Amino acid sequence: MSLRLAILASGNGSNAQAMFDAVERGALDADIRLVLSNRPGARVLERAAAHSLPRRCLDHTLFSDRNAYDRALAEAVHEAGADTVALAGYMRLLSPDFLAAFPGRVLNIHPALLPAFPGVHGAADAAAWGVKLSGCTVHFVSEEMDCGPIIVQACVPALQDEDADALQMRIHHLEHRIYPQALQWLAEKRLSLKGRRVFLAPGGGPLAETPAQAFIWPPLEAGF
Ligand code: GRF
User: Fold this and answer.
1) Among this protein's residues, is 110 annotated catalytic?
2) What is the pTM of this model?
3) Strands 55-57, 133-140: parallel, antiparallel or unpaired by DSSP?
């Protein structure tokens, strides 16, 4: 059965775009019920409009506090008929009540190899630290920031002749592959949780090609 997906994003929305594209090419079995931004004028809303997807802006500055905002947010997701929430550059912490409304159904992508370099500047922090390997992580969302169980990670070397922006761009490109894949595993009900560990049931299909200088685990499957 298709995922009934709500995508929450605050800005550019290239990860949201990767989800739209994966749905359109038939790789991701999801019905995108809502694209929501907390920021008026966010580029992600234009992207959603270009694909004629249901979209909404819920401006957080108009709410008295986080709990009031998150109640309205949960209502918007429910009203849209979504049961799964993908955070795609959504720059706000979610309240425990919001997470309790969608147990095990909220995912996030982070531009570093968690648990290293959590926080809003994860990619830049890793580059500035001088790491030799960096990457990105898709994980279930828990109450603490960037701490939930890890579904998939992609790893790339930091090359001597590139700057932080170039490294981030290569990582961003891998985000666009691993996030739709993680959602597809969820759609196929192949993910299960034992404690903090996420287990992926075998799929049996062909695997996708990955760039020579990248390592992704679990491996991506055809279509991603
Ligand atoms: C990505 O780097 C993602 O890992 C982080 O926020 C950024 C969003 O980028 N959580 P975009 O808006 O999807 O282009």
Assistant:
1) yes
2) 0.97
3) unpaired
Is the previous residue joined to 115 through a cis bond, with omega within 30 degrees of 0? yes
60-to-25, 68, 213 alpha-carbon distances in Å: 33, 9, 40
Task: Indicate the Cα dihedral angle 9, 15, 20, 25, nearest 10°.
Answer: -170
Contacts 24+ apart (CB under 8 A), 55-64: 60/92
- Token pair for 187: 């759609």
CA of 89 to the centre of ligand 1 (A): 4
User: Mutate which of 37, 150, 152, 172 to test ligand 1's pocket (most atoms within 8 Å of Cβ)?
Assistant: 172
155 and 215 Cβ atoms separated by less than 8 Å: yes
Distance between CA atoms of residues 135 and 117, nearest Å: 11
CA of 76 to the centre of ligand 1 (A): 22
pLDDT string in tens for the chain (224-residue length): 699 999 999 999 999 999 999 999 999 999 999 999 999 999 999 999 999 999 999 999 999 999 999 999 999 999 999 999 999 999 999 999 999 999 999 999 999 999 999 999 999 999 999 999 999 999 999 999 999 999 999 999 999 999 999 999 999 999 999 999 999 999 999 999 999 999 999 998 999 999 989 999 999 999 99
**Residue 41 DSSP class:** T
Q: Indicate the pairing of strand 3-8 with strand 30-37.
A: parallel
Rounded-to-integer distance, Cα 82 and Cα 3, Å: 8
